[in-house]
């Protein structure tokens, strides 16, 4: 196996040994951290949401409005946000003053890793899920029903469904898995994460997958990362832990990521070309995304560029 990896990625023997050693050390750190927090008192059958945002006030506001409209039994939502200028900072402050909901809590980023660890340490909900600010809810869902699913056996994804057959990020069709039925909830789709193609084999996504808070806290505390993209990349070290569980999703995905712009330089992910300053101007003019036009969207990819329309907030 190591010879194959070296050949594919052009790595030396020392390189691959270093990768395996790093991964092994992180797994040891995880299990040690897990042992120490095993007795923490989490409230059963509860969930929280953590949203990552940077320089996207209009898009974040649209996500939050879509949650208020389409998510039943909405939970506490913590928004960890970063800004590159005082203009963006003012826009986020305007949103904070808007008082959309008492469930929304804004935390301005100072050090992403430590801020995230602090958030996770202060959560007492048994489960959590992450979102990013260019997501919107396109279907209704009930969080109480979602958190009732046994996370010891399943990792539920809000972004997957029978409609997802293409990967925008990779740029090719992706094979849907062989679904099977379960006695737990018969109107859901079940599959093996380990055998899934692209998104169907990616359980540690920060786009709407449901996890145990304790597991994510222990994983996060062991990793080295600077921002959301490197965080998600680092999380993949722990794939083997979650591959032991099955995937579960609704027949139609509940959310879609609309990558109309790019606000980070950690990777070369594909994205649209709408400038953040243009969207900031639209925010100042009092606009948001027309999320009504997005409800019921039959997206074929978890990430999908679509024609954007705006409405007054």
Question: Would you give an account of this structure?
Answer:
By secondary structure, the protein is an alpha/beta fold. The protein folds into 2 domains: 1-36; 43-139 and 202-239 and 255-312, Spore Coat Polysaccharide Biosynthesis Protein SpsA, Chain A. 35% of the residues lie in helices and 22% in strands. It has 11 helices and 16 strands. The strands form 6 sheets. The protein has a 5-stranded mixed β-sheet with strand order 4-3-1-5-12, sandwiched between helices. A hairpin with a 4-residue loop joins strand 9 and strand 10. Helix 1 (2-9) crosses helix 2. The longest helix has 24 residues, at 13-36. The termini are far apart. Residues 1-11 have low confidence and may be disordered.
The outline comes out as globular
Contiguous low-pLDDT stretches (5 residues minimum) are 1-11
CA distance, first residue to last residue: 55 Å
Q: What's the number of structural domains?
A: 2
SSE order and pairing:
Elements lengths: L1 H8 L3 H24 L6 E12 L2 H14 E2 L3 E7 L3 H13 L5 E5 L3 H11 L2 E8 L2 E3 L3 E2 H5 L6 E4 L8 E2 L4 E2 L14 E5 L17 E3 H10 L5 H8 L3 H5 L2 E5 L4 E3 L18 H9 L2 E3 L1 H4 L15 E3 L1
Parallel strand pairs: 1-3, 1-5, 2-7, 3-4, 8-13
Antiparallel strand pairs: 5-12, 6-14, 9-10, 11-13, 15-16
Helix pairs in contact: 1-2, 2-7, 5-7
Quick synopsis:
With 313 residues, the chain is α/β, with parallel strands linked by helices.
